[in-house]
């Protein structure tokens, strides 16, 4: 009888631990579903201390993939593989991508070859294998630019989406403002707001004094990705439609919309919605050509080529903006294309992509729109790195520019870098 009681107590205690673990996992899953991945990680880590480690590691891998922390994903994957090799196979491509992002090319190539030998008919594996070869080649090819971190304005948080307006650099940051401390949820990062600083267009010296751009733009949600008209009196920007914390363009918890302001008498007016905004899809990453005739943006609307595509509208002075047109292949792919920038002088479109052959995560590409067919090329190092490089812009002379990157050696989560053409 005593032995039976002990057995019952033993299994009851195991059941209580399992129930408690399930509670942690369920909480983590709930936060994951609304895009609060940092909070989800916290609860998953509570669960991993108890039992069912393989299950929780898989969930952690998903989170690290979402918040783009490849080093931590690699550690979690290797832990999972040591416990359950079959469950780790589910995340093979994420692991391979993380090896590539962190510059572990030799290891990535060996792993890609292993996957290809096991499943040579899998298109995704074949493409991933080829991408590692391409990355190794691109790493040894350089362009004619110097890239420097703007340490004067970068913080430990995230600085992204630079834009030039005369001698002003405007950008988005989720730094914790002294006056406004707004967060999308417990343990999450603050919302992105728009900031500006001045710079000398001759010496390219950047003023370390940073100010909020406009009270009309900065609200209780994310604002980012601005683009100015040629005269500087109109600005388009991206804003989340809900007060939630996810930067993913096609997230199921929030949609992004495009708005614009006009400056009259030296003051910015109230925001206007972009005519084609739709509550069921996202519109983001605007770029208005300097002559005001072409408006580029990114959307995940139905009927596109891939996940997020680049679209454009043409401005007819009599009829207004034309309906959005998908720029199509070969620029858009089955993956994600983001942050268009248009060089009107040479009829060249710059953009970021996670699918065109690159060096790691998102790379910046150049599309020559005058060529037939359209010629697309990787802009190479040091503009691109093994990590994510995006939101490239140039000044009108193409002699200098800015970009965002989460490459190694930065000051924060993402930093803004200045690009200078070599003498």
Taking pLDDT < 50 over at least 5 consecutive residues as the criterion, the unreliable ranges are: 1-21, 178-182, 243-253
The structural class is: alpha+beta
- What portion of the residues fall into strands of 2 or more residues? 25-35%
Cα-atom Rg, whole angstroms?
A: 23 Å
User: What's the helix count?
Assistant: 8
Shape: globular
Number of strands: 22
Can you tell me the number of structural domains? 2
Order of helices and strands: HHHHHHHHEEEEEEEEEEEEEEEEEEEEEE
Taking all residues together, what is the mean pLDDT? 85
Text of the CATH class of the largest domain: Mainly Beta
Amino- and carboxy-terminal Cα gap: 89 Å
CATH fold-level name of the largest domain:
Neuraminidase
The largest sheet is: 5 strands, antiparallel
Q: What share of the residues lie within helices? A: 25-40%
CATH architecture of the largest domain: 6 Propeller
What's the CATH H-level superfamily name of the largest domain?
Answer: TolB, C-terminal domain
Short description:
The chain has 423 residues and is an alpha+beta fold. It has helices at residues 2-33, 37-48, 53-66, 70-83, 85-88, 92-101, 105-118, 123-139; strands at 145-149, 159-165, 168-173, 193-198, 211-212, 223-228, 234-240, 256-264, 267-268, 272-273, 283-288, 294-299, 309-316, 320-321, 325-326, 337-343, 348-353, 363-368, 375-378, 389-394, 400-405, 415-421. It contains 8 helices and 22 strands.
């Amino acid at each position: 009888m005593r032995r039976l009681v002990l057995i019952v107590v033993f299994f009851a205690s195991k059941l209580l631990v399992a129930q408690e673990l399930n509670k942690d996992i369920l909480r983590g899953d709930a936060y994951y579903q609304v895009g609060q991945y940092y909070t989800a990680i916290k609860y998953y880590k509570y669960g991993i201390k108890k039992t069912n480690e393989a299950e929780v590691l898989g969930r952690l891998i998903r989170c690290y993939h979402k918040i783009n922390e490849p080093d931590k994903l690699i550690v979690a994957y290797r832990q999972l593989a040591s416990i359950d090799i079959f469950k780790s196979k589910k995340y093979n491509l994420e692991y391979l991508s993380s090896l590539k992002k962190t510059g572990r090319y030799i290891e990535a190539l060996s792993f890609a070859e292993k996957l290809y030998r096991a499943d040579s008919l899998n298109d995704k594996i074949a493409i991933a294998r080829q991408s590692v070869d391409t990355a190794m080649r691109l790493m040894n090819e350089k362009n004619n630019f110097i890239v420097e971190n703007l340490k004067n304005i970068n913080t430990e948080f995230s600085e992204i989406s630079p834009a030039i307006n005369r001698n002003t650099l405007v950008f988005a940051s989720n730094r914790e403002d002294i006056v406004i401390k707004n967060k999308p949820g417990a343990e999450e990062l603050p919302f992105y707001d728009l900031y500006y600083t001045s710079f000398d267009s001759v010496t390219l010296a950047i003023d370390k004094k940073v100010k909020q751009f406009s009270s009309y733009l900065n609200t209780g949600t994310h604002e980012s990705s601005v683009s100015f008209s040629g005269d500087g009196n109109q600005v388009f920007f991206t804003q989340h439609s809900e007060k939630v914390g996810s930067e993913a363009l096609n997230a199921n918890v929030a949609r992004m919309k495009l708005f614009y302001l006009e400056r009259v008498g030296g003051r910015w007016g109230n925001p206007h919605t972009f005519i084609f905004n739709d509550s069921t899809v996202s519109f983001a990453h605007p770029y208005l050509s300097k002559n005001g005739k072409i408006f580029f943006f990114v959307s995940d609307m139905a009927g596109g080529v891939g996940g997020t595509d680049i679209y454009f509208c043409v401005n007819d002075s009599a009829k207004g903006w034309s309906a959005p047109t998908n720029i199509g292949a070969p620029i858009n792919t089955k993956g994600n294309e983001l942050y268009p920038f248009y060089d009107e002088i040479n009829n060249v479109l710059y953009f970021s992509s996670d699918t065109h052959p690159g060096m790691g995560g998102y790379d910046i590409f150049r599309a020559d729109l005058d060529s037939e067919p359209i010629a697309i090329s990787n802009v190479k190092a040091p503009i691109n790195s093994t990590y994510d490089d995006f939101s490239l812009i140039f000044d009108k002379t193409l002699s200098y520019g800015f970009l965002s990157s989460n490459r190694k050696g930065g000051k924060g989560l993402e930093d803004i870098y200045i690009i200078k053409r070599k003498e």
